[in-house]
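Exam revision sheet. Question 4 asks you to relate a sequence to its structure. Input first:
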Amino acid sequence: NIQIGDLKVNNFTFALVDDVLGLGSIYTQPSSSFDGILGLGFGSLSVGQVPTVMKALNSSGMLKEPVFGFFLGDEEDGQLVFGGVDPEYYSGEFSFSPVISAAYWEIAMDEIKIGSASTESWVMKLAKSKSAIVDSG
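Answer key, structure tokens:
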């Protein structure tokens, strides 16, 4: 069984990774501190086609919507919400982009613009790939 907050999935298969050397230096540095990794990628990445956590939660009927939302804290704790988003951590409306690869959260993208009406904008054009992977890690 697996339980995340109030969400519980019975007879869920998951893997324990005890060798993180292939995951990059962020996981292997002596100063690294983490409790684990919860993959939220698509089932096509799942070893042995084991259902993903998100698929199992959605199939269980416990989620209000088949979505999850992150708040990545800096000076405060972060948050992961399954089945919705926490309106305390965003303003405005969401814009959705279709996923173009059923493996990673890859979306089509021509450029990234950072800035606002009160700051100078910075633009990075994606000349070669024309895509980006949206990832929390």
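Marking note for examiners. The CA atoms of residues 106 and 132 lie 5 Å apart.
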